Amino acid sequence: MRSADERAEELTAAIYAALLGETGWQAFLDRLNGFTPGALSTLFFHDLRARAGAVAFVSGSEGRETALQDYEGYYSNRNPWMRKVAATPVGRGIIGEEIVPREEFNRSEYYSDYIRQNGLETGVGLTLHKDRGCYFLLSTLSDDRDVERNLERAHVFTRIAPHLKRVFRYYRSGEAHAAGLALGEGIGNAGRLGLIVVNDDLRVIRTSVAGERVLAGGDPVGLDAMGRVRFASPDLQAALQALLQHRHFGQATRIVDDPQTGVRLIRVGGDRAAAFFAGTTIAILVGDPQGNVRPHLQALAAAQGLSPAETRVFAGIVAGRSLTEIALASGTKRETVRTQLKSIFAKTGTASQSDIVRLATGILRAD
Length: 367
What we know:
Elements: H1 4-19, H2 25-34, E1 40-47, E2 52-59, H3 65-73, H4 80-83, E3 94-95, H5 96-99, H6 102-106, H7 109-115, E4 122-131, E5 134-142, H8 147-171, H9 178-190, E6 193-198, E7 204-207, H10 209-217, E8 221-223, E9 229-231, H11 234-243, E10 254-258, E11 263-267, H12 272-277, E12 282-287, H13 289-292, H14 295-303, H15 308-318, H16 323-330, H17 334-348, H18 353-361
Antiparallel strand pairs: 1-2, 1-5, 3-4, 4-5, 6-7, 6-12, 8-9, 10-11, 11-12
Helix pairs in contact: 1-2, 1-8, 10-15, 14-15, 15-16, 15-17, 16-17
């Protein structure tokens, strides 16, 4: 039988083989699960805010197919381990008895109606990453209640933890979504549309020039006071939130079209690993405001050589907003807006905000 360190070395090799595309994450999990006969191993997440979780990869589910559906549909909110996941250390393997005492765990609905019913008794887990109340974990459930053997399995989890944390850093660097971003850019360029790419925190991670103009105008989509993407339409905002849910692991590409605004939302599917490790990204495609939203204002800003960020400030001043309101709407500091305003003055030959309004309305002639 392999020692704990030998198993850790074998799993470390499997991690990098999956990361480099030589195998896959299912192969890594199958190898881990193979060290414990009759076990059930998963890469999964638990969202404390939603009090729910979902499984991205599973090994050992043969004969337990309904167990995963039951977990996601009901027992994830009954799992006593997950109720205390916030107190568990990130990066250290831990056995179930360290989280919840055995006597207390055995009295839970989760144990009697789910764990025991599936021929299991306890588990070993590892918190890999946490992000805004959402925890990403590796777990092996088994019927082996021997504490010493389970502590040895936990040691293996601890040994491979640094490598799995590097996987999260890689995926969240943006490389994992490169193909999806390229798809969105291609569609945007072909259709002369504005592209805005957002992550699962509704933060903008990429925009086209036309996308910047869309955000500057704020209609149909702009930024709220926290710098997050916000649609004027509550229905579109709800559709965006639904597409960003973590549980869409490996599903087909989904597209939501809104005929009233011409907005298209695209969640590129197919890559379970990217969805689990990096989170979901959405490409928002919107008609270029240069052609249909205050064209004279956009044309004037372009003629004066204003950048997209300066155009946003320019439009805000013409709309009568204060510098503080413009800063809040764009998610920037007021001093940044003041600097952009000084640049606008220099480029347009104006000396005050009133001059900018006069320029926009044609009272003050541009040179």
